Amino acid sequence: MSIRYIEKIKQFVLETRSTSYQMKIDELGYLHHLYYGPKAGRRDLSYQYRTYDHGFSGNPYDMRHDRAFSLDSTPQEYTSFGVGDFRVTSIRASCSDGSRCAEFRYESHEIHDGKYAIPGLPSVYEGDDSAQTLIVTLLDTAANIRVRLYYGVLDELDVITRTAEIINAGSEIVWLRKACSVCLELPFGKWDMIHFHGRHCMERQAERVPLFHGIHTLSSGRGMSSHQHNPFVILCDHTATEDSGICYGMMLMYSGNHKTEIELDQFDSVRAVMGVSDDRFRWELSPGTSFHAPEVILTCADGLTQLSHRYHRVIRYNVCRGKYQLSERPVLVNNWEATYFDLNENKLVEMAGIAAELGIELFVMDDGWFKNRKDDNAGLGDWIPDSEKLPNGLDGLIAKVNDLGLKFGLWIEPEMVNEDSDLYRAHPDWALTAPNRLPMMSRNQLALDLSREEVHEYLYTVISGLLNKYHIEYIKWDFNRSLSDVYSHSTPSARQGEVTHRYYLSLYRLYERLTSAFPDVLFEGCAGGGGRFDAGMLYYNPQIWCSDNTDAIARLFIQYGTSFGYPVSAVGAHVSAVPNHQTGRVTPLSTRGTVAMSGTFGYELDLTKLSGDELAEIKEQIVRFKELQPLIQNGQYYRLSNSADHSHYVAWQFVSPDKYRSLLNIVVTNPLANSAPIHIRLKGLDSEAVYSVNGEFECDGAALMNAGYTFEQLTGDYPSRQLDIIRIR
Ligand code: GLA
Predict the structure, then answer these.
(1) Percentages helix, strand, coil for the chain, rounded to the nearest 5?
(2) What mean pLDDT, rounded, does the chain reach?
(3) How far apart are CA 566 and CA 250, in angstroms?
C-alpha cells in the first residue's frame, strides 16, 4: 500500500520506493503539509513544527487566542486566499457577492487503486507499475468552493503526481482567477533553483541560482510552453551535485501559458506553486461545474542524475504512448535546411534516392509543399498540395519515395493561418484577433482560434483527410508563432479569459482523436524548434524537434539543459550542413554525428551537394547509429560535465540497463593550447566487471568509475570522440 490514512492522528502517509510524503488534518480541519523527501519512517512527522508568535501574521478566528497559529507560517497542501496567508497562493477567485476569500478545510477523502486521469488533459498513466490515488476534498462553506486535491503515487517510479479540481458548490457564479495544480512547501533548508530558460534557437539553458528572499516567477504568457521558460523546475539543496543531495523536480504537463512562483519567505521557508498562468486567466465556474488543473509530476531524488533518470523513465514509460513509444525511431532526412521553400518533386526524389543508398529510413517533406507557399507570406490554412512543385501530386511523390524503400513524412502547421489564404478569406473570424485592433503579426501569420468547435472540426477533417488519402507515416506538427491578441469571436466578452486554456483543451482533444485514428503514424512535435517541448506534448508526440538551432556546439548546451527533464528518445536531433545556417560555425561531420546521435537522429541538409567522402562517412554514421540505437534510446543517461563549470568540453555517457554496454561522448567546444588533460570519471558501470575500452585495452568498471579515463590531446576544430565500453567479463 503506497497510501495510508491513520485515522487516530488524521494523517496521510504516501510512500514510494525511496520517498515519503506526509500531511495531516489539524484540529481546525486545515490540511498541513508535513514532509516530502527521502524515506523518513512512518511515524507522525508533525513533531518538527513548532509555532512561534509572529507579529503581523494573524490568526484564524477560532484560533484567535493562540497567537502562534497562523496560516501565514503554516506549510499547506493547497492554500486558502484572502484570509491571512500573505504568501503566494494556489488559488484566487471572486464570488458573485464580490468577496475574494476562501479558507479551505477538510471535508472527506478517498483512496483508490490505480492512477486517476484528468478529463480532457494529458496525465501520467499507470503502465506496468502499480499506482494508487488519494483524493482529499477541502471545502470553504462561505464561498461554496470545493477543492479536490489528487495525488497519484507511483511507487516503483518514485514519482508523485498532483493536480487539483476546483468545484463551484454553491448556487451563484464563481470567477476563478488562479487555479494552480500544486503547492509544494519546503519549510526547512537552503535551496537552489535550477530552471531552463532560453529563446528561439537557444532553448532550455540550465541556470542554477540560490533562492533569495522574495518571489521568483518562471512563466510563459506566449500561448505556448515556450522557448523562454520550460515548465519544469528543480529545487535542490544548496550542496547538491549530480551524484548526491536532495533534489525536487516539478514538471507541469501542459503546453499553454504556465506560471511557477517560488517564494522564499520571511521565515526562510519555501513555497512553490505551479500551474496554468493566472495572467489574463479568468474562468467562469457556474454552479456545479468544475475546473481541472493540469498535472504536475513531482519527484524527490538524491542528486540531479537520479532526478533526471526518474523523469526519463516516467516520460518514456508513463507519458509517451503508441506504436513508437519504445520502439526505435526511423533515421530521417528532412529537406528544410536543404531547400527551404524552394522544393520540387525532382529535387526531393533526387535527395530521397541518395538517402536510400545511405540507409536513411524516412524522408520528410517540410514546409513549402502546399498551394501558394512560395515563402512564409501565404498558404497556411489551405492544405492542398502545390501542383507546380508536385506535378504528379503528393501521391506521385510518395510513391517514388516509397519505391526507393523509404517511409514518407509530411510537415504541417495546422494551428496557423496566413491572411493570404482561402481559409482566412472565408473565415476571418476563425483567427485570434482582438476587436477594433490590428493584430500583431508574427512570421506573417495568425493563429486559428482552436477554442471554436468549427476550427477544431476543420482541422480534424483536413489532417485526417491527408492521412486517409496519402501514405503518410510521419507528421511533423509545427507551431510557429506565439499567441497574442487572444480573443475568440465566438466567446462572450466575460469569458475571454478562458480562451487560451480552451484552445489547449481543444488541441489535446484533436491530438487524441488523430493519434487514436492513425496509430501507426509517428508524430513529431515542433514549435519553431523546441518552443513547446513539454510533457503535455510528449503524451501525443513521442519526439519533439528540440531546436531550430542545428549547430552541433550550440546543440550541446540545448541538449544538456533538455536532459535534466526529458529523455533522449524525445529529442529530435539532426546533422546539418556547414557553415551552419544559424551560427555560421564549421564543425566536423563526425562531431555533428556524435551530437545528433544523442537524439532521435537524422539529417537536414542537401544530400545532393555532399562529396563522396562525406556520403561515405554518413553511411558509416548511420550503420553505427543503428547499432547504438538500443543503447542510446534505452540506456541511462549521465551528464559528465557541467556547462557552468567546464568551459572547454561537454561530455555525457549512456549505459545499457544491464550495464554491458556504454558509450562515452565528448566534444571539445573550445580547444585550449597547452591545456591540462581532459580527465573523466565514468558512471553507472558494474564496478566488478571488466570492460573493453574502444577495443584498445581492458579495464575494470571500478577503475573507469573511480580512477577515470584521460583523453589524448583533442585539438582542431571542435573535435569529438566516442568511446565504446563493452563488458567482456
Ligand atoms: C519551424 C521549424 C523548422 C521548419 C520551419 C518551416 O521553424 O522549427 O524546422 O519546419 O518551421 O517553416
Answers:
(1) 25, 35, 45
(2) 97
(3) 13
| 80 CA → ligand 1 middle, Å | 44
Q: How confident is the model at residue 617, as a pLDDT?
A: 98
17: nearest Cα among 313, 296, 243: 313
Instruction: Tell me the mean pLDDT in the region 99-121.
Output: 97
Among 534, 551, 604, 724, the active-site one is: 534
Is 614 an annotated catalytic residue? yes
**Residues 6 or more apart whose Cβ sits within 8 Å of residue 727:** 659, 660, 661, 686, 689, 690, 691, 692, 701
Measure the CA–CA gap between 307 and 298, rounded to whole angstroms.
10
8 Å CB contact between 118 and 98: no
- Between CA 541 and CA 566 the distance in angstroms is 13
Catalytic residue among 614, 620, 686, 700: 614
The pTM assigned to this predicted structure is 0.98
Which pLDDT score is estimated for 1? 73
CATH superfamily of 3-39+53-318: alpha-galactosidase from lactobacil brevis (2.70.98.60)
Say if residues 225 and 533 touch (Cβ distance below 8 Å).
Answer: yes
Architecture of domain 332-634: Alpha-Beta Barrel (3.20)
What percentage of the chain carries pLDDT values higher than 70?
A: 100
Query: Do 3-39+53-318 and 332-634 come out as alike in CATH topology?
Result: no
E strands within 124-228? Answer: 131-140, 145-154, 159-168, 174-186, 191-199, 202-210, 214-220
Q: What pLDDT, on the 0 to 100 scale, is given for residue 645?
A: 78
For the chain, first and last CA: distance in Å?
A: 40
Report the length, in residues, of the chain: 729
Mean pLDDT of 618-640: 98
The residues lining ligand 1, judged by C-beta closer than 6 Å to any ligand atom, are: 336, 366-367, 411, 478, 480, 526, 528-529, 545, 548
Please state which CATH number belongs to domain 643-727. 2.60.40.1180
121-148 confidence digits (pLDDT tens): 999 999 888 899 999 999 999 999 999 9
165 tagged catalytic? no
Q: What is the CA(249)–ligand 1 centre distance, in A?
A: 31
For residue 370, pLDDT beyond 90: yes
Taking the centre of ligand 1 as the mean of its atom positions, its distance from the CA of residue 411, in whole angstroms, is 9
* b/e map 263-297, b = 16+ CB within 10 Å: bbbeeebbbbbbbbbbeebbbbbeeeebbbbbbbb
What's the whole-number mean pLDDT along residues 4-10?
Answer: 96
Q: Is 623 helix (H, G, I), strand (E, B) or coil?
A: helix
- Structural domain boundaries in the chain: 3-39+53-318, 332-634, 643-727
* CA gap 551, 143 in Å, rounded: 55
